[in-house]
Amino acid sequence: MTDTPRAADRYPIRTATLETVDAFVAPLNLAFADIPDPGDEERRTWEPDRIIAAFDGTEPVATAGALTFRLSVPGGEAAAAGVTLVGVSPSHRRRGILRAMMRHQLDDVRARGESIAILWASEGAIYQRFGYGLATLGGTFEIERGGAVFARPAPVEGTVRLVDLEAAMGIFPALYDRVRVETPGMVGRSETWWRWIMLRDTDHMRGANGMKFLAVYEADGQVEGTAVYRVKPDWDDRGPNGRLVAVEVLATTPRATRDLWTWLFEVDLVRLVRAVRGPVPHPLQLLLADPRRLGFTVGDAIWLRVVDVPAALVARTYGRAGALVLEVRDGFCPWNAGRWRLDIGADGRGSVEPATAAPDVTLDAADLGATYLGTFRFSELARVGRVVENTAGALLRADEMFAAARAPWCSTMF
Ligand SMILES: CC(C)(COP(=O)(O)OP(=O)(O)OC[C@H]1O[C@@H](n2cnc3c(N)ncnc32)[C@H](O)[C@@H]1OP(=O)(O)O)[C@@H](O)C(=O)NCCC(=O)NCCS
């Protein structure tokens, strides 16, 4: 086991309680140079018994937390830890404290029976060493309103109305869940999450992006889409120079997708429309006459760590029947290391057993994280030398097995 007894011994790790949690997370503000916001209600979503701190004497100098999630995986859901609140005080950085906290946390995730851990990384270089692989992508664009011309203009079919937080609470979660169940990478959101993070608006949350709007799209009397967006008004010598930021646009029908984006492109006094953490590929790449005008850029979104190989592999379904022997290398979670035989039946469900047969494919835990939801294919990882094919045809078989019906996407920043 790759452990760092020195850091763990020198800076003992303890678990928070409801009473101590504020002190435990204090190093986070120092790590992110973030001034605490007295109105911050994000703490309502915290789970104190999943928050740890490393102590130098009596002082907490580093912290890490996790949220209990249901993660959509192809064909189902898996219990997952959503790693968050990670920070080490600048006075104690690069002494192995993060590594010690990761060790502690992944042991705890395993003990809780969660087969997967996911996270958003502040810096992409941090977590691969702990077995996290890049598991979903996120798309960002910024388009001048005038450039947002649809390739196949169509009459608007439904209506959009703006709602307040209370009304949104009765609409947005249900619509989101319809999208979530069929989109690998999405996570279940608690009522607290909806009320205090997703739908609420405060000065602090606004930052540079202005007021939050909650829009509901209906057609034939049914809710088919929702949009959360912000508008920052501005003026210059050429007139209105407002900026709209689409935070989350969800649609269950093609017309909802098209009509909601039409709505967003027609908000008055706005010159630029920006979207962050959108799906990849993005529906507007197919809907616009000139998608290049989006200036679409793709970045890393969530990173995924398979904590329990057999449990994670049976939690999802597969694109075709067949068998595959995987040799997994895993220095940080050695219980995963070794050969696993995955058998997929005609119903797409898998069973997993430890194997002695020669492996078809050899890969690291982080590579399994990158392929697990279906974002990257085994053959893509092989082409850059990360996955090794030991038996001819195994990569193609693995690609077909692990393919997801829908591109993975996580729109929840945690
Ligand atoms: C990122 C952070 C948590 C690292 O903590 P730390 O205690 O200094 O990390 P460790 O000393 O345990 O380092 C473990 C390994 O990760 C590497 N590492 C740590 N931070 C890194 C970074 N930002 N980029 C690249 N590598 C990093 C270390 O070099 C070390 O590598 P090694 O195992 O090959 O020796 C800390 O610098 C921090 O709080 N940064 C600001 C807030 C932040 O970004 N938090 C993460 C939120 S997702």
Write the layout of secondary structure elements.
Layout: H1 5-10, E1 13-15, H2 21-24, H3 26-32, E2 52-56, E3 59-73, E4 76-88, H4 97-111, E5 116-120, E6 133-134, E7 137-144, E8 159-162, H5 165-169, H6 172-180, H7 191-198, H8 203-206, E9 211-219, E10 222-232, E11 235-236, E12 239-240, E13 242-251, H9 254-265, E14 270-278, H10 283-287, E15 297-300, E16 302-306, H11 309-315, E17 322-329, E18 338-344, E19 350-354, E20 361-364, H12 365-372, H13 378-383, E21 388-389, H14 394-402
Parallel strand pairs: 4-5, 13-14, 17-20
Antiparallel strand pairs: 1-2, 2-3, 3-4, 5-16, 6-16, 7-14, 7-15, 8-9, 9-10, 10-13, 11-12, 17-18, 18-19, 20-21
This protein binds coenzyme A.
Account of the 3D structure:
- With 414 residues, the protein is α+β, with helices and mostly antiparallel strands.
- The chain is built from 14 helices and 21 strands.
- The protein has helices spanning 5-10, 21-24, 26-32, 97-111, 165-169, 172-180, 191-198, 203-206, 254-265, 283-287, 309-315, 365-372, 378-383, 394-402; strands at 13-15, 52-56, 59-73, 76-88, 116-120, 133-134, 137-144, 159-162, 211-219, 222-232, 235-236, 239-240, 242-251, 270-278, 297-300, 302-306, 322-329, 338-344, 350-354, 361-364, 388-389.
- The chain has a seven-stranded mixed sheet with strand order 1-2-3-4-5-16-6. It has a seven-stranded mixed sheet with strand order 8-9-10-13-14-7-15. It has a five-stranded mixed sheet with strand order 19-18-17-20-21.
- Strand 9 and strand 10 (222-232) form a beta hairpin.
- Bound molecules: coenzyme A (COA).
- Coenzyme A is lined by residues 31-32, 86-88, 93-99, 121-123, 125-126, 129.
- The site of coenzyme A has 18 residues, from helix 3, strand 4 and helix 4.
